[in-house]
Specification:
The protein is an alpha+beta fold. The chain has four helices and five strands; from the N terminus they run ββαβαββαα.
Length: 140
């Protein structure tokens, strides 16, 4: 599931958006030699990448030399063969972007890098379950 764009403090640059769903990248992967990016889920669904044995997942081209592989899928932007691989650099850059807490509408002013927001929100949930007051849980 993609992180909601409205939760980012600043507008998210297009380079951090999926070329298929146009949302902020989730599990970013480069699709081709041109380094076009998409979400792992979008690549799996839209590019119909499946293991030759029929098990859902991603194929590594020419992984099974003794089996005839279907024509490799092509990148939707440049029509070069798909060479899907995780983009850890892009993932880290997105994780560095500042985001608001999901309880911003309740008055929470917490802003932190995306990589830290889950920890903050878990602390809020713990305080809510302790005292039941969702309004004040996020203000400390």
């Amino acid at each position: 599931m993609n992180f909601p764009e409205e939760r980012f403090v600043n507008p998210v640059e297009d380079e951090y958006k999926c070329m298929i769903c146009f949302e902020v990248l989730s599990d970013p992967n480069t699709v081709c030699a041109q380094d076009h990016l998409c979400c792992l889920a979008c690549a799996t669904a839209s590019l119909q990448l499946v293991c030759p044995s029929g098990v859902s997942g991603l194929i590594l081209l020419n992984m099974f030399e003794d089996q005839k592989l279907p024509e490799p899928p092509l990148c939707p932007l440049c029509s070069t063969p798909v060479e899907l691989r995780p983009s850890m650099i892009t993932s880290r850059k997105i994780d560095d972007l500042p985001v608001y807490c999901e309880h911003q509408q309740l008055g929470c002013r917490w802003v932190c890098p995306k990589r830290n927001i889950i920890e903050h929100q878990m602390q809020v949930r713990a305080r809510v379950s302790d005292d039941g007051d969702k309004e004040d849980a996020c203000r400390s």
